[in-house]
Amino acid sequence: MLKPKVISQALRQTLNNGVKAAMIMTSEGSLVSFAADTDKEATTYAAISANIWNTYKKKNKYTELKYQVLHCEEGILYVTNVGSMILCLVGNHQAMEDVGILKAKGEAIKNHLEEPLIQFAASEFSIPP
To answer: Whose CA is closest to 112, among 5, 1, 6?
Structure first.
């Protein structure tokens, strides 16, 4: 069974050195778990990042999308897939100065959560005999 609270604790560990929010969402942008100041912030970040991720993925169906780094007026987003879900880290201006740290944190949390999320997706969508 997937425990969003445990995933939230893992995501919370990324919140330093300019990272102000981290979230796991479905490919449609529905939050599974997050670490952010408010629910509204997390919902907004999830909707924007999932929309951009899916738009790019559809338009470039012959290229495997590994990650996106999106520079915004208020900060920076690092978006990647984790199994069939999407991981998004949101950085402030400090994170914009060192994108490598943001990417390294994203890859580390992705590697940590990928197997449990893949197992969850497989068990959630399998048809019992």
So the answer is: 6
For residues 35-63, average pLDDT: 89
Give strand pairing partners of 91: 19, 76
Residue 121: what pLDDT?
A: 62
Show the tokens assigned to 22.
Answer: 């981290």
pTM of the model: 0.86
Closest by CA to 114, choosing from 83, 75, 76, 86, is 83
Domain boundaries, the chain: 4-124
Within the chain, strands assigned E span: 19-25, 31-35, 67-71, 76-82, 85-91
User: What is the CATH T-level fold of the domain 4-124, as seen in this structure?
Assistant: Beta-Lactamase (3.30.450)
- Cα separation, 76 vs 63, in Å, equals 23
